[in-house]
Design brief:
Helix 5 crosses helix 6 and helix 9 packs across helix 10. This protein starts with 9 loop residues before the first strand and ends with a strand. The chain is an alpha/beta fold. The chain has a domain of 221 residues: 4-Layer Sandwich (Metallo-beta-lactamase, Chain A), CATH 3.60.15. The protein is built from ten helices and 14 strands. The chain is 35% helix and 21% strand. The structure holds zinc ion. Zinc ion binds next to helix 2.
């Protein structure tokens, strides 16, 4: 078990760049003590990468960090969101309210997700429940798993983007130039930012130093999110990077080494799935129940709903990736997808 060091609200990376550790006090996510936001100097105001979620303690921490630099919310001229999960974009609406001049930038696909996740979410939730049932989840369990996401809504005060990116653009602050790198997988419109002069990568949740990011199959994920994720890792391996500044945990140097560990982890998981499937044809709910999960010795039946949902949707992502690699075939019988080895 890793012991998290105490949260450090502000740390200078280099002159004109700061890492801010904003608290995520929530017992449903005990492994994440904080989210890292980044404050980057510009000639016409500062750029903030990610916001933390919508909670008084996050807002207060951000406000006091700004104050310590003789800044306020109105000094944030640009807000870049790596992806639309609550811990990365939840405070965006409040920041834009407090600072009307702030221009918010995010990937086009991520902007589309804002509506289905946080505004008109009942129809997508129904589709997601159907998807789970099609993968073998009993319908009463699917309802409970679908509802597990609703509490996250309180952590989001929605801000809408003023400008969309697709990957490949350069965001210039006047002091630093940051290249947008589209890295789908953890979320379809996830982006990293690369600062070439100092060889710094702001990796969001795409690459974290010890946690392997959740890659889940979803109605809006596309049909092979794990394949997308692995392809997006390959975009980074030849990039000259001296320091990676991630969305959680701590900054680190060895990007190539970390990417290899993540790839090894996914290969190992694939092997486990193939071994399970040697004995027959299964749906993803059955495969998920047979896999080993790091869940504090809880039995599969006693997994908390959110964790169970992640386990199932991660399993679907793995199985579908194996299918697109030609190792597994899919059939549809009795309203359910079944998979078997080729
Ligand atoms: Zn996150």
């Amino acid at each position: 078990m890793t012991i998290n060091p105490p949260i450090m609200p502000i740390r200078e990376i280099i002159a004109g760049m700061y890492q801010l550790q904003l608290p995520l006090a929530d017992k449903r996510m005990p492994q994440l003590s904080h989210v890292n936001a980044y404050l980057i100097q510009g000639t016409n105001g500062w750029m903030l990468i990610d916001t933390g979620w919508n909670s008084p303690s996050t807002q207060q921490t951000l406000e006091s960090v700004l104050k310590g630099l003789n800044l306020s919310f109105t000094d944030i001229s640009t807000l870049v969101i790596t992806h639309c999960h609550p811990d990365h974009c939840g405070l965006a609406g409040r920041i834009k309210h407090l600072s009307p001049r702030t221009r918010m930038i995010m990937h086009s696909w991520e902007a589309e997700l804002l509506e289905s996740r946080y505004i008109k979410f009942s129809e997508p939730q129904k589709k997601m429940n159907n998807l789970l049932v099609n993968h073998g989840v009993p319908s009463d369990t699917a309802d409970a798993l679908g509802a597990a996401f609703l509490p996250a809504l309180e952590f989001v005060n929605i801000g809408l983007p003023d400008s969309l990116v697709y990957g490949g653009e350069m965001i210039r602050t006047g002091v630093f130039d940051l290249e947008v790198i589209w890295t789908p997988g953890h979320s379809p419109g996830h982006i990293c930012l690369y600062e070439a002069r100092n060889q710094l990568l702001f990796s969001g949740d795409h690459v974290l130093p010890s946690i392997s990011p959740n890659i889940s199959y979803h109605i809006l994920s596309g049909d092979n999110p794990l394949g997308d994720y692995i392809n997006a890792l390959s975009k980074l391996v030849n990039l000259p990077v001296a320091q990676v500044h991630p969305g959680h945990e701590y900054s680190f140097a060895d990007l190539q080494g970390r990417v290899q560990v993540i790839l090894d982890h996914h290969n190992q998981r694939e092997k486990e799935i193939v071994e399970i499937m040697i004995s027959g044809s299964y749906n993803c709910y059955e495969i998920a129940a047979k896999l080993k999960w790091n869940m504090r010795n809880l039995s599969w039946e006693n997994f908390p709903p959110l964790q169970k949902r992640f386990a199932i949707t991660e399993t679907i992502a793995h199985v579908e990736h194996l299918r697109w690699k030609g190792k597994i075939r899919k059939t549809y019988e009795n309203d359910c997808f079944n998979y078997h080895l080729v």
